[in-house]
Amino acid sequence: MAIKSRLPAAALIVGIAMLFGAALRLYQISGRSMTHVEMFVPGIPLRADLSVPKPRMDLVTVVTSTLSSDTHPPGYYVLMWFVTKCFGSSTLAIRLPSVLFGVASIGLVYWLGMLIGQRAPACVAAALLAFNGYHIVWSKTGRMYSMGCFLGLLTTILLLLLARSTRPRRAMEIGYAALMLLALSTHYFLWAVLATQMLWVLGNAWAQNRPMPRLLNIQILVTILGSPLLAFAAYQSGNPVANLSRDVPLMAREYIQFVYLLPGWDDTHAVDGTAGLVLAPQFLLLRVLLFLFCAVLLIAGIRRLRPDREPLLGESAQSFVWPWFLAAGLAVVTIALHVLVAGHQPDPKPTLKITKALAVLPLLMALGAVVLGKAWDRFREWSMGLNLQFLSGGPPLVWFLAVAPFLLLATISVLFRPIMDPRGLLYLAPFLLLTLASGIVNLGQRSRWLAVSLFLIVGVLLGFSVASYRDRIVGPINFKAFADKLKPRLRRDDLVLLRHDWDTTPILYYISSERYDLRAHDFAGAVRGDPNARVWTLLVHGEETPSTMTQALDGYHEVETVEVPLARGVMYCRSACQ
């Protein structure tokens, strides 16, 4: 009866967390400025000669342009093509899917905590995610990060349910495989989540002296089917923006602090273009104390999420050889089609040769899986010398997903290519927050006063996080405010000059080329074609007027300037211009 009486209270807490989480994510969802990263959403009607990226209005263009000019897989963009096709390209339509995924993740982190027998930490983790300012910002942005967070959680929940099943559950297996493939198609960092899930299954099988589990066979099948995405990533690696950060200590420090709970060293910006309040010297001590506080919580949480002797992976494997090789054949054909299409593009990347070489990867994966199956007993005997008991049961999976993917990404960044970025770590946020929540509960159970103190400290931190991130955007320029100041001064017969580049594209969302004469090329020709027009130049990031614009405006004089932080519009006229 005691357990039943606590269930409504837990459900009430999570319901309130989801309600407030939804309200915070919907706050000013339409009023916030569009940023460059959101201009990649398909279905936004723009002129191809003005925008970077070029508009993607059909599904084929969505896939091909993503693989040729982006650094992400096409899954999120395909989803958003259907969304904008049905609901248009308003800021609400572009951002609402992210809100829904973000709010759903609050409920899923609670479900995951309940599955591993951590009711109180599950409630705390739901609140931590609901009021995490950094997660709120990206949950109200038209980008794939809250979707990836949702999929990482949902696949982990299905993984636990399948691991505990004593018989095959075909529908759930298909759902897990399909959702994991969708996750891999959403962001490349989710490969680290899949790898960690596979290591957990492998560790439990060896620790419990099991035959090769059916679940591991399914995960291998998913890996083979998803292998073309690795070939696509190799092709996209030629894009210089794929180089991010290898500052692992900074990333680890801010990640541990409730996943970028405080802004300043993250990738968001205040609406006035400044870095934010918390970089002031008086807050440096706060960050040091917060890091130490979270480090203690992390250790306490891992100690609480200790291994158990729950029997897992009871279903032994059937032969997956033919499915593996069939999947490998499909993957090889997919890579070959990509090579064919990319090779006929006007300017294929030099990295295409790497993609060609990776055409054998699916077959190598299938062969490796066969070898693993044949030598499973030998590998299991070898593993007896390893202490894998720390992975036994469901609770260790949570902290393992909070730590292992980060270490994997950090290793790649240090040894191979810098790929770390704050928003990519959002996929790990629910697992870290559930681990920290376990630490809070673990310490709070020692005394009532300590529990009250922890509650107050965490509550203040969450409130400060929400307030600090409230008006932040994911780009340095408030293009909406710029357009609101500029449009009352624009006339339909004005000539507007801007650079053809990614950092000027968001202004096109607010200043339509159908209403105004916008030019991003041949400025001299545009001015000669309408010598009596007023001419506006749109400049960003404090840049000087480009020489091509200056030469085109020879004989014109500056009349007026309209500006917001990091963006300005300057109007030029000839002597007779009003």
What would you note in describing this structure?
By secondary structure, this protein is mostly helical. The longest helix is centred in the first third of the chain and has 25 residues, at 2-26. It folds into 2 domains: 2-167 and 244-316 and 376-469, no CATH class; 479-573, D-Maltodextrin-Binding Protein, domain 2, CATH 3.40.190. It contains 22 helices and 5 strands. Residues 1-5 have low confidence and may be disordered. It has helices at 2-26, 59-69, 75-87, 91-115, 119-130, 133-139, 145-164, 170-184, 190-207, 214-236, 248-256, 284-304, 321-343, 352-357, 361-374, 376-383, 395-415, 429-444, 448-469, 479-486, 523-529, 547-552, and strands at residues 495-498, 517-519, 535-540, 557-564, 567-573. Helix 10 runs antiparallel to helix 15 (361-374) and helix 17 (395-415) packs across helix 18.
Rg from Cα: 26 Å
**Overall number of structural domains:** 2
Low-confidence stretches: 1-5
**Beta-strand share of residues:** under 5%
Question: How do the strands line up in the largest sheet?
Answer: 2-1-3-5-4
Name the structural class. Answer: mainly alpha
Q: Determine the number of helices (DSSP H or I, runs of at least 4 residues).
A: 22
Shape: globular
Q: For the report, how would you describe the main beta sheet?
A: 5 strands, mixed
Give the SSE order as H and E letters: HHHHHHHHHHHHHHHHHHHHEEHEHEE
Quantity of strands, as a count = 5
For the residues shown, what is the average pLDDT?
91
Q: Provide the helix percentage.
A: 55-70%
First-last Cα distance: 81 Å
